[in-house]
Structures are given as structure tokens and as C-alpha cells.
Amino acid sequence: MAMHTPDPGHAALQPHAAGLGALLDQCIHCGLCLPACPTYDVFRTEMAGPRGRIDLMRAATSGRIGLDGAVRTHLDACLTCRSCEAACPSGVLYGALVETVRSTVEQAHRRGLAERALRAVVLRRLVPFPKRLRRLQWLLALYQRSGLAAIVPRWLPARVRNLHDLLPPLPLTYSRLPPVAPALGTHRGTVALFRGCLQDAFLHRVNEATVRVLQRNGFEVHTPDAQTCCGAMATHMGETALGRALARLNVGAIDPDRYDAIVSNAGGCGVALKDYGRLLAEDPAWADRAARFAAKTVDFSEFLASREVTASLGALRTRAVYVDSCHLRHVQKVARPPRDLLRAIPELELVELRHPDWCCGSAGTYNIVHPDTAGRILATKMDDIEATGARTIVSSNTGCHFQLLAGVKARALDHEVLHLAEVLDRAHAAAAPEARAR
């Protein structure tokens, strides 16, 4: 009689690993997460929402199903926006659940050759290396100016075309951030800026504006050169070992004991940085320093609003809408500070979205891997933005910024997409002539 060989997928997901069983038991199946879930809104099926995905995880821990079928399919389709956590009355740590199970899936099963190659290039050969990203930025800037950008997209497959449409207008020159930018006026403290990977290369002007705003408000800004990608993309895709390796590099590059704060200006990066203490808790060589690093990390808006803007703000005559980063709003719980800073700018009219807690569909690489679903979610967001009558769209996260630019481009709108730091930088610059006149 032939012996039954267990499916390795059935045995791979252990309820004791990373406290998975206890996390799953937090869910009481109430369903309050469903109205908050963008993918459930798109597909209207149980498995497209958090409750259904948790049921799949439970089935995998009991050995009833493997990891390479419905579990993997439906977890891959999750944005990990974590809006469900804000709606959950039981405090289910859905993000931790998804990260744990995705990591197990990646260890248990090999993906297809094309996807493995894409992950190897993007996660291991590109984003951890700032110089490579800057060279790519320069080549893409040349491409945009060559005229090919108006012709090539029609020949591209949908997934690559979507990536093409996410690109902002790129400058040919790149000015490196100074290692130390001195405080202007009264010195109020010293901070380290986490510059990010894609933002540093493709939205570098955001980092430049962040440094200027912090300087004008009395802070000396250090930008250590050895820092790298925060690791958020890796951990979200189940590549936990790579996420830990990148965390060690950043914790080694930025000494938390030297600074009053480690400032992040991207909501997704900030969540990853604040999680370093947990991520490296089992690493005796790095655990203590990682915990101190995480404790010092603060979002740009949270930092500035808590210490007050001391530099003059000039008038900006515009109607603006602030588009929350999901990870900044739902995970870091930072929603009011960006709005308070915008309301402090004279003549800027801040209007609210009807659904400010709704995802834009970016979610790291989601808009590249799942362009159709991401596009449907973005369409809902853009409808909400257009209904406000605002012409200035304010962002606080790199991926959201790219996604909103793509939405504006697709609809041929005359809206401007700016980071919060850029808006404040413009307001400070607008006040400068008045300050000199006095």
C-alpha cells in the first residue's frame, strides 16, 4: 500500500510560529472590517476581505488546506493598507498576520521564474543601492526628454505600461543632500533624515524641501550616507530575511543616540522604521539599538506639529486636499498633524475628502503587480478628489505620490501633486520677502 506523503504546504503554517494562533484567535468574525477593505469593495467576495483571509489562515494552520492555492492567491491580492485594523473592535493585528503568513509562503513555495527574477532585480539588485537608483533616474530622465515617452507606452504590456505611467517628470541633475544642513536662526535640536530609496531617486525634491523646512524651523539636519531602503517592500512581500538585513544596515548607519529624532517623510517607510525593534528583537547584536532607533523615529508632520512652526508662513492662494497615507493614518495614527500644518498656512483652503481613510491603490508594488485592481481603487480615490474642487493634492508617502500623479495624468487634470514638505517650503519662501521687508 502506498504511503501518503503530506503536502509540505499543509505542514508549513504552524500556529505556534510567531504567536500566529493567538493572533488568529483575536478575530471574532464580526465583519466590521469588510466595509473598510478596498479589495472587498472591488470584488464583494468573502475571500477578498480580511475576515475571509483570516479564515484561510486558520484552515492552513489546521492542515485543512495548503499554502500554495487560495491562501497565497488571496493574500497576494491584499493591499496591506491595514484600514481593517482601524475598524476592528477586537484589535486584530492583521498586518502582523499577513506578514507572518506571507513569509511562510515564500519559504514553502517557489514562485514562477519571471516573478523570482523581478523580485531579485528590484528587491536585491536595485532598491538597496542608492547609486544604482540615481543612475536609473538619470537614464529615465533622458528617456522622458527624448520624445520616446510619448510613443513607447502604446507598445508596452499593461503591467509595464502602468509602471511607466507612475513616473513623475524627472530632472537631469541630482544634487546630493548635504551630510549636515545647519539650523537657521535659533538652534532647537539635531535630527537625522531618513531619505528613503525611491523617493531619494525619483522625488528628490521632496527630501530637499524637507531639509529646508526643518532648517528654517531651527533644526540641524544630518543625512547619513550609508542608509539604504527601509525594507518595507521586502517584508510586505514575505521576504522577511531581506527586510531584517536592510534594517541592520539602517540601524548601523544612523546612531539613534546622536539625535533628538529620526525623521521620516514617507508614511510607509515610517511604519517599517518604527517596527525595527520588533523585527530585530531576536537578534542579540542589534536588538537594543534597533529598539532605540524605533523609539526615536517620528513622521515629519508629527515632529513639526509637536514642536510648532516657528518660521514665518506666507500666503498660498489655493484650495488643497490632503490625501492620507494608509500606513501613516491607520498604523502610525498620524492624521491630525498634517492637517494642522496646512491650516496654519495663510489663504490656503483645506478641504476634506468624503472618504479620507480610503486607500489610493498604491500599496508598495501592488499597483505594478495588480494594475487592474489598483486602477479601480485609484478611480474611486480620484472621483473623491475631483468632487472637492481642489487643485492642489497633498501627499505624505512616496508610493501614494506616484499613484496620485498617475491618476492626474490619466484624467488629464490640471491638479498639482505635492508633498506636505513642499507645500510648507513654498509657504516659507512666500514669507521670506515679507520678513526681509520688516
Keyword list:
438 residues; alpha/beta; Fumarate Reductase Iron-sulfur Protein, Chain B, domain 2; Glutathione S-transferase Yfyf (Class Pi), Chain A, domain 2; 4 domains; 24 helices; 9 strands; globular; disordered N terminus
Q: What's the CATH architecture of the largest domain?
A: Up-down Bundle
Question: How many strands, what sense, and barrel or not for the largest sheet?
Answer: 5 strands, mixed
Low-pLDDT segments: 1-11
Structural class: alpha/beta
Describe the structure concisely for a colleague.
The protein is α/β, with parallel strands linked by helices and 438 residues long. The chain has helices at residues 8-12, 20-25, 38-43, 50-61, 70-76, 83-87, 94-108, 113-126, 130-146, 158-165, 198-202, 204-216, 232-236, 240-253, 267-274, 276-279, 287-296, 300-307, 326-331, 336-343, 366-369, 371-388, 398-410, 420-437, and strands at residues 180-181, 189-194, 219-222, 261-264, 297-299, 318-322, 348-351, 392-395, 416-419.
Overview of this protein structure:
The radius of gyration is 22 Å and the shape is globular. The chain has helices at 8-12, 20-25, 38-43, 50-61, 70-76, 83-87, 94-108, 113-126, 130-146, 158-165, 198-202, 204-216, 232-236, 240-253, 267-274, 276-279, 287-296, 300-307, 326-331, 336-343, 366-369, 371-388, 398-410, 420-437, and strands at residues 180-181, 189-194, 219-222, 261-264, 297-299, 318-322, 348-351, 392-395, 416-419. It has a five-stranded mixed beta sheet. The chain is 52% helix and 8% strand. Helix 23 (398-410) links the parallel strand 8 and strand 9. It has 24 helices and nine strands. With 438 residues, it is an alpha/beta fold. The chain folds into four domains: 8-108, Orthogonal Bundle (Fumarate Reductase Iron-sulfur Protein, Chain B, domain 2); 119-165, no CATH class; 180-305, Glutathione S-transferase Yfyf (Class Pi), Chain A, domain 2; 314-437, Rossmann fold, CATH 3.40.50. The longest helix has 18 residues, at 371-388. Residues 1-11 have low confidence and may be disordered.
